[in-house]
Amino acid sequence: MKSLIVFLCLCIQLSFAQKEMKHEVYFETDKHDIPETEHSRLLLFLSKIENFDIEKITIYGFTDDRGSDNYNLTLSQQRADAIKTVFS
What we know:
Low-confidence stretches: none
Structural class: mainly alpha
Strand content: under 5%
Order of helices and strands: HHH
């Protein structure tokens, strides 16, 4: 019984230890510059997480399907790089 309680406590602790947080930034069509309102929202998000022990950050850039594959790939990378600049 004692080992079951210890096991349950460890499971609960692990479930809280690995919390995933997300923040979405919206861009204007065909743009990779972060709009001012989105920049403010991103800075607010960063201020909320600055005291966390962050192990990994993943940044994804997305586009709609209006352009060619090469254009959209370049634009999505530019958007991800814009967010990376704010993080650094």
